[in-house]
Specification:
about 170 residues; mainly alpha; 4 helices; elongated
């Protein structure tokens, strides 16, 4: 019984080692197609990140750090292309994947910044609208309480000064 346990344990260990070795070969041995696809995806994300960066309406201090991060990702893509031309597809694939993950975080940061700026703009415009409405209401109240009674009083004063004169001969009103 003890002998079978050792055999089962050894076979399990050998099977586990075989599975792990096969997995590491699959991960390390990237094909030319996979590396090319990864580089193309990284290039597309770089283009998208630059388009988002151009669309930011107002630049501040954080944009400089984003530009530096984009430049680092661009360098990684350039290195991936260099390794690809030298037929080192595994390293090329790894560099492209690293650049893609960095660009994903950069794109998320830019989109968050743009969203926050849009939210701030909406808040400011909402406050301006509310204050304009409040000013219109105050003006209406002031007009009704002060100016309109003054206008009515002046109108009555002017109409009270009017005289109606009749022409004695014809009876026409002048």
């Amino acid at each position: 019984m003890r002998k079978y346990r050792k055999i089962i344990l050894i076979l399990s260990f050998v099977g586990l080692i075989t599975i792990l070795c096969n997995q590491s070969l699959i991960v390390q041995g990237q094909t030319e197609q996979q590396a090319s696809t990864a580089i193309q995806e990284a290039d597309d994300k770089l283009t998208y990140a630059l388009e988002l960066l151009e669309a930011i309406p107002r630049y501040d201090g954080d944009i400089r750090s984003i530009i530096l991060q984009i430049d680092i990702a661009r360098q990684l893509i350039k290195e991936a292309k260099d390794y690809f031309t030298n037929s080192s597809f595994t390293v090329s694939y790894q560099k492209a994947i690293t650049a893609t993950s960095e660009l994903d975080s950069i794109i998320e940061e830019i989109e968050t910044k743009t969203h926050n700026q849009n939210q701030n703009k909406i808040i400011v415009l909402s406050i301006v609208g509310v204050l304009s409405g409040f000013a219109a209401i105050l003006f209406s109240i002031f007009f009704i309480s002060k100016i309109y009674p003054w206008y009515e009083k002046k109108k009555i004063d002017e109409y009270s000064k009017l005289e109606i004169k009749y022409d004695d001969l014809s009876g026409d009103v002048k």
